[in-house]
UniProtKB/TrEMBL annotation:
PANTHER family: UBIQUITIN-FOLD MODIFIER-CONJUGATING ENZYME 1
Function statement: E2-like enzyme which forms an intermediate with UFM1 via a thioester linkage.
Entry annotated with the keyword Protein biosynthesis: no
UniProt KW keywords: Ubl conjugation pathway
Organism superkingdom: Eukaryota
Entry protein name: Ubiquitin-fold modifier-conjugating enzyme 1
Species name: Volvox africanus
Biological classification of the source: Eukaryota, Viridiplantae, Chlorophyta, core chlorophytes, Chlorophyceae
Family as reported in the entry's similarity comment: Belongs to the ubiquitin-conjugating enzyme family. UFC1 subfamily.
A Pfam match: UFC1
The keyword Protease is annotated on this UniProt entry: no
Length: 166
């Protein structure tokens, strides 16, 4: 699968630290260790994005790291489209990837499930399964949400489904 990525994506993924702790939220103490690794990987990814002027999201976990919320944006034809996104960490994490939701886009594209969950089934979930437990939140954003936005936002704009916010 990595062979089909463009060189920039491949280089980015190589720079995001892999996680080593296998705990999920049900394992309280080890989950804290995993959460530290998650935050380290996210900080690394965010710094890389900012340094290359490719900043495209903000994110914040709740106090126990089981619910994450943020804003993501995509620029299409020099117009910025910004969306709130969220996800819960599944009880079976890291074996199961988080399901990223963009509630305001619910029902606006076929590449979305009920509740505004973006479709990651065909491309991202097999990749996650193959790389679990080494992938984390930063990888889900880089290899899940980012390509989804790149594919779907232009389509929704050009079909008139979404309009720029004034």
């Amino acid at each position: 699968m990595a062979e089909s990525w463009d060189p920039k994506t491949r280089d980015t993924v190589k720079k995001i630290p892999f996680l080593t702790e296998t705990a999920g939220p049900r394992d309280k103490q080890k989950w804290q260790d995993r959460l530290k690794q998650e935050l380290h990987a996210l900080i690394t990814y965010i710094k890389m994005n900012k340094e290359s002027d490719m900043d495209w999201f903000t994110i914040q976990p709740n106090s126990d790291g089981t619910n994450w919320k943020g804003k993501c944006w995509y620029v299409h034809e020099l117009i910025k489209y910004e969306f709130d996104f969220q996800f819960d960490i599944p009880a079976t994490y890291p074996d199961t990837a988080p399901e990223i939701e963009i509630p305001e886009l619910d029902g606006k594209t076929a590449k979305m499930y009920r509740g505004g969950k973006i479709c990651l089934t065909i491309h991202f979930k097999p990749l996650w399964s193959k790389n679990s437990p080494h992938f984390g939140v930063a990888h889900a954003l880089c290899l899940g949400l980012a390509p989804w936005l790149a594919a779907e936002v232009p389509f929704m704009v050009e079909s008139g489904v979404i309009k720029p916010k004034v």
